[in-house]
Amino acid sequence: MVIFGSRLFGKVDAIPGLGYVATKFGHINFVPLIPLEGWLVVAEEGNGWRGQAIGMSGKSVLVAWARFLFIVVGVGSLLFGSIAFAEHEAGGAIPLGLLALACIGGLITSYKWKWVTHASPERAMEIAREAGISEEGLRQLHRLYSAPEAAAAAPAQPWSPPES
Questions:
Q1: What is the pLDDT of residues 15-27, one digit of tens each?
Q2: CA angle centred on 14, ends 12 and 16, rounded to 5°
């Protein structure tokens, strides 16, 4: 069975109280192939999402493809390393095992490294402007990034995309 369509991949640049950036890809069997458009996602609902289309994020596209490669290369190296180990070829199994560990580390890092997962203050303001956030919303966002201690104490209000 072949599954194809479009869906979001490459979740990056989270902005507290606003959302995150992702890229809508054309996919086959959940392999992100063709980047179609960038999105500021403000809510996920079942299999869908709500948000505002924005310009394509190169970081989101690269992260989506990198995560896919980490999974494919990691699983492949584990498989071939296991076969080599079973055939008593430790010389071939060790480098493949190290490659698998590097892929696991890369995948985990892509979900945990703040440079990937969270938007810088400048990038957050750029995304918000591009999404059509009001001046009051931009001021709130600026205050949020200016005083992180205060932002942690008061939860941010949810945002809705502007009416078209």
A1: 988 999 999 999 9
A2: 175
- Of all residues in the chain, the percent with pLDDT exceeding 70 is 88
Contacts 24+ apart (CB under 8 A), 158-162: 158/17, 158/42, 158/43, 159/17, 159/18, 159/19, 159/42, 159/133, 160/42, 160/50, 161/40, 161/42, 161/50, 161/51, 161/52, 161/131, 161/132, 162/52, 162/131, 162/132, 162/133, 162/134
Contact between 158 and 42 under an 8 Å Cβ cutoff? The reply is yes
DSSP at 163: P
CB 147 within 8 A of CB 21: no
Q: Is 51 helix (H, G, I), strand (E, B) or coil?
A: strand
Mean pLDDT of the chain: 87
- Bridge partners, residue 54, by sequence: 38
Query: What are 107-119's pLDDT values in tens digits?
Result: 999 999 999 999 9
Q: What dihedral do alpha carbons 153, 113, 38, 134 form, nearest 10°? A: 20
- CA gap 65, 143 in Å, rounded: 34
Say what the pTM is: 0.79
